[in-house]
Amino acid sequence: MIGTINPIKLNEVIEYEDLFHETYTGTSLKAGRIVQIVYWIKPGKSFITYDILDEKKKYVNIEDSPSPPSVQRREISFQTLFELNQPVDIEIAGVKRPSVIVSINIHWNVEGTEVSYGVTDVTDTTYFGVREELLVKWNPAFAR
Hints:
Blueprint: E1 2-5, E2 13-14, E3 32-42, E4 45-53, E5 58-63, E6 76-79, E7 87-92, E8 95-109, E9 112-121, E10 126-131, H1 132-138
């Protein structure tokens, strides 16, 4: 899957005053520095959340909202090796199980980018946070 999103920049500082701009009332954003961007992809829905660090607290999974021009955004392109609803194999306790991808999460932070998946197996159990590297290991036909 290839795509582009337009989130608030990583390490951008949202000032307290930015949250009270007359055009952007009711925002879910918090004052502080953006330390992680997460793009969530599920069937029929996708959205962006942020982890925001201020001097005293860390806010996690804060949904994106319209923001005033003083808060800078930047386009980010991404590419995943797997798609939603794609059949894959996963390995649980050494046993391979046929499964299907039900969600994709892409995380950006100062350490880089990580792609993980939610995968439902034949027992109708869903495993979230399955890293792309593991899916490639279990499904070598998809190696880059």
